[in-house]
Amino acid sequence: MSQLSAGWLSCRQVLNIMMILGFMLNYALRVNLTIAIVEMIKPNVTVAVANGNSSYIPETTLLPEVSTSNGESEEDYSKRFDWDEAQKQLILGSFFWGYVLTELPGGRLAELVGGHRVFGHSMFWASIITLLTPITAHMGYQAMVILRALLGFMLGASWPSIVPMASVWVKPMDRSKFMSNMMASALGAAITMPICGYFISWFGWESVFYLTGGIGVFWSICWFLLIFETPARHPRITPEERKEIEDAIGSTTSKTKPAYVPWKDILTAPCVWAIILVHGASVFGYFLVVNQLPGYMKSILHYDIKANGLLSSLPYFGKYAMSVVASHFADYLRTRGKITTTVARKSFTAFAVGTPSFFFFLLIFFGHSRVWAITIFTIALTLNGAVTAGYLGNGLDIAPNFSGTIFGMANTLSSFGGFVSAWMVGVLTYNNNTYGQWQIIFAIVSVTYLVGCLSFVTMGKGELQPWNNPPEKNGVPLQEIRSTEEGVPLQTNNTQK
Length: 497
Known about the structure:
The chain is built from 19 helices and no strands. The protein has helices at residues 11-40, 74-78, 85-113, 115-131, 133-137, 141-155, 158-169, 175-180, 184-203, 206-226, 239-249, 263-267, 270-299, 305-335, 341-366, 370-384, 394-398, 403-429, 435-459.
């Protein structure tokens, strides 16, 4: 009689659950600082310049009263760090210094040694670094810059490493749904922000790093115990499930690891650049919201820390819900033959990236209102969740053998966008953190979204590319030298006597 992976769950179900939890933690390890830093620094270090409108109160007139509403004493307030706005943005942006270094190598490494190892180690060491954050903060902002860069270095390989796993575990017509698991990162941000707000109120800002780091270590241990690189290597998979997966994937993904990357074909393919450009534009806007929304709500909309954390989380709940709905709908349409993969990817990308461009344009005029700002932020990020049915899994469509490399290239550009967005906000709001400056920021984000959308709509494709199976350097085609992957033989796998 066959065994299931966890007694009553299939191996794919366990993988989906662990991925959802993993990406929730992945973003929890990032965004914990964006809400905690509001209470870590003295807000009157940077003197804001009034914009001439009496409804916009300079930041220094609001605090410490607002930020000490949780009962913080003057002595505790004096222990806050004297970091100005530029230093704050440097700390937030330094994450991307390390992040950009491991995106492309992480994707390629996952293609060679397996995404299971790369993703697991990425999360484990990032969790350890998170646990060290409170100690490091007391060493100065320079130490925090270094620590955040190291955190980015570890997490940089996480996203590209999962895509190669999808190429061997997920049936082609189910890949949009699988990619929605990655949007659990938005769910992680949504849950982390309000929890961080309350933990800071109750136990101090240090508690959020111990909480997220400790959970991350526990998850990493479970990942290595429950998840395996391929169906063939899983000791508890049933023969039926393994056969179903391998038959569905067929010849689109090689069982042997590609010996080299056809760089010329990849770098000259417009469909690859379509993914890179739209991903860079989409993530530029997303990271700006992730890193800057708590600060915007504090300094412009004047919310306290608990309301800040709760309201900042609303867009992320919406994004995850949209990612699940859109990906299931896209796979349904593709499976029924109602639309082609190319049409699905372009249509959902236009919806997910084009419409947020319009809503950020609206923020230029309505972003000063609490109700309108929260509503528009929530709608824009919610609609952006449909990228899981659009470009996000497109690398698996056009070249599953090199999906990690393509995703690494795209995330490398988006990482620069993450740093640039933090730098841009720091420059535009330094000594002038007013709504007028934020109007400029919203306009830049709106144009960026629009350019990314048009790039994919004009150049994107959904068909498997010929260079997915390149000839080996000795002239023998890769598909002719495939051999049975090392693992438990299919015919005897998990059969009980």
